[in-house]
Amino acid sequence: MSMRPSTLSTDGMVSSSHPAASVVGARVLADGGNAIDATLAMAAMTWLTLPGQCGIGGDAFAVIRDPDGHVHTIGGSGFGPDGADVDFYRDRGHTSIPLDGALGVAVPGAPAALAALHRSGATRSLVELWEPAARAAERGLPCSAKTRSDIAEAVDAIARDPGLSAVYLPGGSLPHVGQQLPQADLARTIRTMATDPGWFYTGSFAEQAVAALARGGAPFSGEEWAATADALVAPSITMNYGGAVVHQTPLPTPGWMVLQQAALCDRSVGFTPWMSTIAIDRMARAARMSFEDRFARCGADSDAWRSLLTEESIASARKKLDSGTLAPSAFDVHDGDTTSTVVVDSDGRAVSFIHSLAFTFGAKISVSGTGVVLNNRFGRGAYLIPGHPNSVQPRRRPLHTLNAWIVTDSENNLLHVGNTPGGDGQVQWNMQLLSHLIDHGLGPAEAVAAPRFTVFPGSDSDVVGLESELRCEDRIDPGTVDELERLGHRVRRQSSWGGGGSAQVISMDNDRGLMIGAADPRQEGIALSA
Question: How far apart are the C-alpha atoms of 96 and 392, rounded to whole Å?
Fold first, then answer.
């Protein structure tokens, strides 16, 4: 695998993890649509191109920059069942929430986020924007190598669900790469949602989903579904880094963790050689500190994160990092199953968008006759720790791994738009992308393809007690890796492109009036100009 070249444009650009999604977005821009229109069209197409990674039954978040420079965010994240608390799961013998089946499901937030994104400035109807995806679902998109791999990973659970097995195990076996996978039920659902988004939360779909989940043992009332229909619309949270301003998604996302790492690395990593021992060590220890703070103090309805970004807290944390002492860890990172897109249009409007089912094919259950696969975000994100701000509690959203970002200069001119999937790797790899772009002046293609390193453990709820690791792709200089081990890191070497993620970046060359974009070579994506 080799690094793909950057794409250049003056009229608009898209990037995603699959060519079909990028083509749909580029066509929308070429036909006069804006970045919001293109994002909505791409989101629907990725339900088909990367069905193990995202779907109607998942969650979604976006950072949007308007042409006037205003930056805001939209969050689609749902509640767990109203009838559940820590005792509900412990009384049933669970030490963590199951990841498969009804007990792991949170109300999907993606439909609410997409409806709010449409209201925020789209110029085309959802019927028009989603029809290409509906037609593709009817005829069936060819199965990609990534999708086949995802199906193989979850094959036993898929085989137990009639809706999933009918689509993804045609004839009772794994599909071959290139085999079309038609989804007539999903096509009908896409068209229904396009005309009536409320159908998902208060209409017949919600009734059917709640009834199915109740049969699976999850104590949903239906009221938490109606409550999720209102997306979280809020200003971005920001931090200065390297003379630029990083805009991130607020809670329940871990966007603050990227900002905390940026504050801890500012004025240090940028003055060290690129991918040097000193730079990697600093970023790795900053990431580890963020995960510990997240586990110790943070929940989706807590403001504790704000105190972690104060000047006093950052100064104290920087002092600890400067001492060179590695912090202990207690929780494991998972790579997660997520996909993302970035779009910039000719007016300077930009959208960084990310959506997910949590793990591969989510909870691995579907709502009969709809083609909708349900997430396992509740099982992944919520803790069974009494009194913890992220413990299971009625009408509390679990913490998230998804986050997205936009970078502007001090005068609010657009500089970069980006994101990456990858579970708890996201907050680390996004920090690495920011350093590549801002500290070292790398272009998008170099940034998304750069060797990746990942601190384990993170703060997912289901695996505890594993030893701390620093996982390094083997393209990192062997001498550097040896030095990291001497500094106390327990290094695990990965294959050249095995770090995970699928980063997307579009950067602005404001001097030449150009957009420059690239998609991560670790997956099948491409950046396209309009």
Answer: 10
pLDDT digits (tens, 9 = 90+) for 439-450: 999 999 999 999
521 versus 9: which is more confidently predicted?
521
Residue 343 φ then ψ, to 5°? -140, 140
Instruction: Tell me: do 31 and 148 sit in the same domain.
Output: yes
How many separate domains does the chain show?
2
**Domain coverage including residue 485:** 248-336+418-496
CA angle, corner 404, sides to 68 and 308, nearest 5?
100
DSSP codes, 25-86: HHHHHHTT--HHHHHHHHHHHHHHHSTTT--TTSEEEEEEE-TTS-EEEEEE-----TT--H
Q: Are residues 98 and 196 in the same domain?
A: yes
Do the beta carbons of residue 77 and residue 396 sit within 8 Å?
A: no
Same-domain status, 332 and 369: no
Same domain, 200 and 279: no
Extract the tokens encoding 454.
Answer: 């990942």
Residues 45 and 110 in one domain: yes
Q: What are phi and psi of 295, to 5 degrees?
A: -65, -40
Within a domain: 286: yes
Q: Within this chain, do residues 332 and 367 fall inside the same structural domain, yes or no?
A: no
Residue 166 lies in a domain: yes
How many other CB atoms are there within 10 angstroms of residue 172's CB atom? 7
Statement to judge: residues 30 and 153 lie in one domain: yes
Amino acid letter at 84? A
> How far is C-alpha 34 from the chain's CA centre?
22
For 28, 53, 448, 522, the CA distances from 500, given in Å and listed in that order, are: 30, 13, 11, 7
pLDDT in tens, 83-115: 999 999 999 999 999 999 999 999 999 999 999
Please give the share of the chain, as a percent, with pLDDT higher than 70: 95
Q: What is the pLDDT of residues 127-136, one digit of tens each?
A: 999 999 999 9
**pLDDT tens string 225-265:** 999 999 999 999 999 999 999 999 999 999 999 999 999 99
269: left (phi over 0), alpha (psi -120 to 50) or beta: alpha
Average pLDDT over residues 164-184: 97
Instruction: Quote the pLDDT of residue 3.
Output: 62
Dihedral of the alpha carbons of 174, 178, 183, 184, in degrees to the nearest 10: -130
Considering the domain boundaries, does residue 526 fall inside one?
no
Does a structural domain hold residue 501? no
Distance set, CA 148 to CA 19, 136, 318, 445 (Å): 16, 18, 45, 27
CB atoms within 10 A of CB 482: 12
pTM confidence score: 0.95
Q: Is 332 in the same domain as 453?
A: yes
